[in-house]
Amino acid sequence: MFAFPDQETVKKVVENLPRVGVGVKYGLPQSRKTSLMSPRQLFKHSDMPQKWQRREITNFDYLMFLNTIAGRTYNDLNQYPIFPWVLANYSSEKLDLGEASNFRDLSKPIGALSENRRKYFQDRFNSWEDESIPPFHYGTHYSTQAFTLNWLFRVEPFTTYFLNLQSGKFDHSDRLFHSLSDAWEHCQRDTHDVKELIPELFYMPEMFYNSNGFDLGKRDDGIPVNNVVLPPWASTPEEFVLIHRQALESDLVSCQLNQWIDLIFGYKQRGPEAVRATNVFYYLTYEGSTNLNAIENPQLKEGLQQQILNFGQTPVQLMTDPHPPRHSIMTISPLMFQPCNDDLCMLMKFISNSAIVHISANTYPQVTQPTVISISQNLVFALNKWNNSYTQVSSQASSALGSSLADKNLDPNHAELPMTVDPLLAVGNPSQPLPKRHLGDAFDQRLHITWSNFVTTVDSKSIIACGYPDYSFRVIDAENASVRQVVYGHGDVVTCLARSEASLYADFYVASGSLDCTVVLWHFSSQNQAIAGEYNMIGETPAPRAILTGHDAEITAICVSAEHGVVISGSKDGTVLMHTTQGDLLRRIVCADLTKHGRTTLPSVTNILMNRDCNLAVFYGHEFVATFTSTGRQLNRPAHKSIEKVLCATMSRCGEYLVVGTENGRISIVRLFPLQMLYTFPQTDSPTRCVAISTNQRFILGGLESGAIVVFNVDFNKWHFEYKQRYSHR
């Protein structure tokens, strides 16, 4: 983060930077004009509010969006992102997320949740007599540096920052954050405590552990405060974070979150509406309350700056009208709870009979031509047209899968199915399709071709393939199979590829792993459809962004996240390493279970998946799967042993479910935490070599050894904590 002295300097910097914008994922142009927009303009021109209303993004993601454009950042403890208290029950043995009394009233500020407190603060406001300072309800704030550090002081670097703030000592044990129940109760009775929460309480269990070895002492009642006391309904920090996140995403929060947004970012933040809502803070907390640049007296200026630091800072006001509510789930999907009696949607068979080893479901509705790219073992690929207007139709499933598959085999001209075969590969086409649909040179004979030899761009313009005997990987034009780039960066055959999260038209990372035991990180330019050079100019020689070392065996699996700035890699000897995208080794992740019971070596790492909360699923060999936090702590003990040989896996967009394909031709859905088999689709007639999920999360696609693609209907809401009861009653 760069903090410049004035707006003129900011303009000069933006003029000299590439057109970076503020994030294509917000639906804003990647332009210098966007970079210079005010927070209110960013909110007005973004499509995020509409996405949130339509339930296309989570409550968490929307709150992060609002915080970001309103000037809140992880890089400034005084302007840290703000999240709401959502629960009001931290004492029960069990927590029912369908019971309204367990939730906080989001239409009121923390200071006005009870009538007594509301009256106390209103009396203060109405009786204020100091003419030099405007009246206020609250002399403290819901977000300050001290509050942020008190939440996070158990983890670095916040431990060091906290000690610096406290003159090298921890505060009195009773004043340290030590219990969620006590923290909530304190907010209800102490007139100096109106703090809200921070995002970490919804995704980072490590903040509840004292991992630094400091003795934090005991409370006055003798209870140690080294670790945070959790509510009775959560047995571990991981379980608390899971349930807390579920509460944030629940319908009871969704239906009133817009009212909390009005208080923090909207029309009730200041002015007469803030007075009516009992939501006025000390005047120096508001943007524009004083012009520090106009103050010439250095002592006075320093004093005001310190007051602002101590009192906290209110976010930039984003709107002056009420924020629209989120649509109900029944409004968005009125047929959501109507069961689809037929798992099978369709089967599409290619004439080559070559195994389908890779599928990319590039089915974004915003692209001109949504496409499912399939790649066969013979290196022939297909650009299969996807129809996003297709809707699932309930039908009576056939008694045997064999007859269902036969009945739903694809006629290329069939208009009632979601996928249409690539016309160049359709049956009876007189043209010669292979030159325009073949990836070129054969792969190294030592390699077993799998789904991890390929990645694609989300607009289906390029396929990136590895495994060539000249130690390269290649960027191939999907339209005509011409080679755009031959990229060299390894001393042996490239064995696997991975791509970071990618939005439409945005750049992303590509990571390549090799027999030479290294992982190399590259920058892919979507504008140029090529691996970028040092300066991201057309025609430059591709340049690595980082070379990651530490493995002693062939790289077999990679996962890369630009959002979190990490690369996780696995090798043939079972080693899993986590690096930063700058190339620094963070940690080695060890599955202790698999080294016990006389096992001298670990199985090869075959797949690594990571969700938005940085929870990892690591597949060892074709039998074992273990889950870890990003700090390397194993969540499931012992590692789960599959009864079938797992060949492939992917993760749902929400990060709660794994979709796995097996050698026996089955595709199953597994809950990530805790690891639990939820559902298995009807068995197919050959091994499942690859799996993918459509962008709308309504279809699962499986590539089969027999040269076919099977498409199953899926509704992940069936296993969602909030809706599973409605499904079970059908």
TrEMBL record:
WD-type repeats, residues: 548-576
Protein function: Binds to type II regulatory subunits of protein kinase A and anchors/targets them to the membrane. May anchor the kinase to cytoskeletal and/or organelle-associated proteins. Regulates endosomal traffic in polarized epithelial cells such as the vulval precursor cells and intestinal cells. Thought to act as a negative regulator of lin-12 activity in vulval precursor cells. May have a role in the internalization process from basolateral surface of polarized epithelial cells.
One CC-aspect GO term: membrane
Ranges where the BEACH domain occurs: 37-326
Keywords from the named record: Repeat, WD repeat
Any matching Pfam family: Beach
Keyword Repeat among record annotations: yes
Name assigned to this protein: Putative neurobeachin homolog
Alphabetical GO biological process terms: intracellular protein localization
The organism's place on the tree of life at top rank: Eukaryota
Presence of the UniProt keyword Repeat in the record: yes
Gene3D superfamilies in alphabetical order: BEACH domain, YVTN repeat-like/Quinoprotein amine dehydrogenase
GO MF assignments: protein kinase binding
